[in-house]
Amino acid sequence: MVSKSPYGKLELTEAMCVGCPAIDDEHRDLIEIINNIAGAYDDSKFENCKGHIRHFTDSMKKHFRREEEILEELGFSRLDEHRKHHLAIESDIEAISQDLGDDISDRQAWGTFYQKLISVAVDDAVKADMDFKSFLMEKNRWSGSI
Ligand SMILES: [Fe+2]
Ligand SMILES: [Fe+2]
After folding, report:
1. Distance 12 CA to ligand 1 centre (A)
2. What pLDDT, on a 0 to 100 scale, did the predictor assign at position 27?
3. What global pTM score does this model have?
4. 19 CB contacts (<8 Å, ≥6 apart)?
5. pLDDT per residue over 76-99, tens digit each?
6. Ligand nearest to the CA of 12
């Protein structure tokens, strides 16, 4: 089904991949859930949409913990900073979900929520991960595939 969202379908581009399949797959899954959120909203399936939002929040937290574990195992030196960034994103997502409230049918409130969701989840989470991309590439070069 083609999404009728004014923002279009999101996808993880090659440039946004960090080179660790476990992390890239989870980023792809998170983006897919955002597409599901938008798709359900565009079809006016508000309850499904709320379910997808909860799914996104849970998956994002699990992803952050998994990513932190991987980076810790590999000895990433800026892990503390990255952990703080994850926590900030988690509270941002919580705050925008609370602002949206329970009745999500209001188009204006929804538009604000969705734009913020994309900017927080994609711009912050995925772009912030570019910080460890070169570190992973270097690791890969010396020890083979991660
Ligand atoms: Fe990530
Ligand atoms: Fe991250």
Report:
1. 12
2. 93
3. 0.88
4. 133, 136, 137, 140, 146
5. 999 999 999 999 999 999 999 999
6. 1
Ion ligand 1: residues, CB within 5 A, are: 67, 129
The reported pLDDT for the residue numbered 127 is 78
And the tokens for 88?
Answer: 């900030």
CATH fold of 20-139 reads Four Helix Bundle (Hemerythrin (Met), subunit A) (1.20.120)
Q: For the chain, what's the residue count?
A: 146
Tokens in use for 67? Answer: 């990513």
Determine the pLDDT at residue 8: 79
Q: How far is the CA of 67 from the centre of ligand 1 (A)?
A: 6
Q: Rg of the chain's alpha carbons, rounded to an integer?
A: 16
For the chain, the structural domain boundaries read 20-139
Determine the distance separating the centroid of ligand 2 and the alpha carbon of 71, expressed in angstroms: 10
Compute, in angstroms, the gap from residue 39 CA to the centroid of ligand 1.
23
